[in-house]
């Protein structure tokens, strides 16, 4: 069990808050702990199939999609489930069961935090 | 050899251009080819030590650092070299030898492209 959920999603202040774990990478040296947390988020997007699934959810109207809408990425259903679980564990997607289907939605604050980390613009 | 350099950096129009490979993830479904390319960039940042090295370069004055300035991340010099090579192969860092030392610099266009991919703001 500990192996499956070793990575905790970042602590967030709310839907629009940027995770306090995620300063821009230009802000200074990362602590080892922050680096672990941030690397886990990038790792969630480091697989092409996972990235396609994430993109399918993100580009779906409302940023939410039924698993039945997004499973067509050329891999088996168990593999799709595995990848969606990884995205959920990394905090990038949330999920909710409604009737027969599970619906996935982008966690905007976490994704915004990742984007902000890579925003290297400076004021000089 | 082919194993080491399977991933090509994205094609860029110039230092300030955003890689044409990298639409925001909300823009639509990713092609399999774009997903491969983008996943490789995220993979480069999916290791905590690599992320710390990248952050050290990015936060160094001028966005450039000598390998002698950044090697203190608690791993051996060959491991540092290995990680810097991976970041270079993914297109996130550039390198230049000057005298004894190799200097690494952030490739701002590639990093900006990654940030833009994760910019999920919509106009609605």
From TrEMBL, chains A, B:
<dbReference type="Pfam" id="PF01022">
    <property type="entry name" value="HTH_5"/>
</dbReference>
<dbReference type="InterPro" id="IPR001845">
    <property type="entry name" value="HTH_ArsR_DNA-bd_dom"/>
</dbReference>
<dbReference type="InterPro" id="IPR036388">
    <property type="entry name" value="WH-like_DNA-bd_sf"/>
</dbReference>
<protein>
    <submittedName>
        <fullName>Transcriptional regulator, ArsR family</fullName>
    </submittedName>
</protein>
<dbReference type="GO" id="GO:0003677">
    <property type="term" value="F:DNA binding"/>
</dbReference>
<dbReference type="GO" id="GO:0003700">
    <property type="term" value="F:DNA-binding transcription factor activity"/>
</dbReference>
<keyword id="KW-0238">DNA-binding</keyword>
<keyword id="KW-0804">Transcription</keyword>
<dbReference type="InterPro" id="IPR036390">
    <property type="entry name" value="WH_DNA-bd_sf"/>
</dbReference>
<dbReference type="InterPro" id="IPR051081">
    <property type="entry name" value="HTH_MetalResp_TranReg"/>
</dbReference>
<feature type="domain" description="HTH arsR-type">
    <location>
        <begin position="30"/>
        <end position="124"/>
    </location>
</feature>
<keyword id="KW-0805">Transcription regulation</keyword>
<dbReference type="InterPro" id="IPR011991">
    <property type="entry name" value="ArsR-like_HTH"/>
</dbReference>
């Amino acid at each position: 069990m500990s192996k499956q959920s070793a990575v905790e999603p970042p602590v967030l202040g709310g839907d629009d808050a940027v995770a306090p774990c995620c300063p821009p990478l230009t802000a200074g040296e990362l602590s080892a702990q922050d680096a672990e947390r941030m690397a886990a988020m990038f790792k969630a997007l480091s697989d092409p199939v996972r990235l396609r699934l994430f993109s399918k959810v993100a580009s779906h109207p409302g940023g939410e999609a039924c698993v039945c809408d997004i499973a067509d990425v050329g891999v088996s259903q168990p593999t799709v489930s595995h990848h969606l679980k990884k995205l959920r564990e990394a905090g990038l997607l949330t999920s909710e069961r409604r009737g027969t289907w599970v619906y996935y939605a982008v966690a905007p604050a976490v994704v915004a935090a990742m984007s902000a980390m890579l925003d290297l613009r400076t004021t000089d």
